[in-house]
Design a protein that fits this description.
By secondary structure, the chain is of the alpha+beta class. It folds into 2 domains: 2-116 and 248-260, Roll (Diaminopimelate Epimerase, Chain A, domain 1); 121-243, Roll (Diaminopimelate Epimerase, Chain A, domain 1), CATH 3.10.310.10. Helix content is 21%, strand content 42%. The protein is built from 6 helices and 18 strands. The protein has an 18-stranded mixed β-sheet that branches. Strand 2 (18-24), helix 1 and strand 3 (45-52) form a beta-alpha-beta unit. It is globular and about 50 Å long. The model has no long low-confidence stretch (mean pLDDT 96).
Length: 261
């Protein structure tokens, strides 16, 4: 049997933010078993952890594929390690992943992730992208992980209702839609779509802020920003780009514990 915990990440309250499952194991089982568990959980990501010396090996699976980087499930994993007493909150959580070494620190009721930055380059919009999103696109850019489109305002952003089948064809990867916030409490707002990964819309995407951080730092001239991901569940992310890294701050709450038989 293996224990599994469901955590709502990038939220201080249950049923907000982005849910992730966390499963701590003595060793990694076959990949197809982990993929089956992720499909069974049917969350945007399930994280699998195995201790290695003073660090933890960490892998992430969507219901359809293994991914190279995931912010909210890493935040959830750190939360579980501290909550269960597997790691003291005075100690940095070190994760060994397909995206290199990632770290998490506990700071005043917030978890701060140290992730690689993913800066973008401007590009022309692929044919059919605006039609798939159903909105006029002001600007398009692409990073190593995700594409990014800027829309006119928050009203347009919140009203997006993509044609997911068309979007998967014209942009077979993760796509961020973003705009500057019209509210004083946030600097920018975003949404994230990834039908090719088996996730039409991700509720709160930590890794997307590795792209959004450098993008908005350049435009707003701020070193620290507060971001809101405007999905149905919604979630708050503190963003601080530092050269080739981005620090992402979020909160988390456990909502469910169980055992895999």
């Amino acid at each position: 049997m293996a224990k599994i915990t469901q955590v709502d990440a990038f939220s201080a309250e249950p049923f907000g933010g982005n849910p992730a499952a966390v499963c701590i194991l003595p060793s990694f089982p076959p990949d197809d078993w982990m993929q089956s568990v992720a499909a069974e959980m049917n969350l945007s990501e399930t994280a699998f952890l195995v201790v290695q010396d003073d660090a933890w090996r960490l892998r992430w699976f969507t219901p359809g594929v293994e991914v190279d980087l995931c912010g909210h499930a890493t935040l959830a994993a750190a939360h579980v390690l501290w909550e269960e007493g597997r790691l003291d909150r005075q100690h940095v959580a070190c994760f060994l992943t397909r995206s290199g070494e990632l770290r998490a620190e506990w700071r005043d009721e917030w978890i701060v992730l140290d992730f690689p930055a993913d800066p973008t380059e401007d590009r022309e919009a692929p044919d059919g992208l605006a039609d798939a999103l159903g909105v006029r696109i002001d600007r398009v850019a692409t990073g190593a992980e995700y594409g990014l489109v800027e829309v006119k305002n928050e009203k347009q952003l919140r009203s997006l209702a993509p044609d997911y089948a068309a979007l998967e064809q014209v942009h077979p990867g993760g796509l961020i839609a973003t705009c500057e916030s019209e509210r004083d409490e946030w600097d920018f707002v975003s949404r994230f779509f990834a039908p090719a990964y088996g996730i039409n819309e991700d509720p709160v995407t930590g890794s997307a802020h590795c792209t959004l951080g450098p993008w908005w730092q350049e435009r707003l001239g701020k070193d620290e920003m507060t971001a809101y991901q405007a999905s149905q569940r919604g979630g708050l992310v503190r963003v601080r780009p530092e050269g080739d890294r981005v620090h992402l701050g979020g909160q988390a709450v456990t909502v469910m514990k169980g055992e895999l038989l």
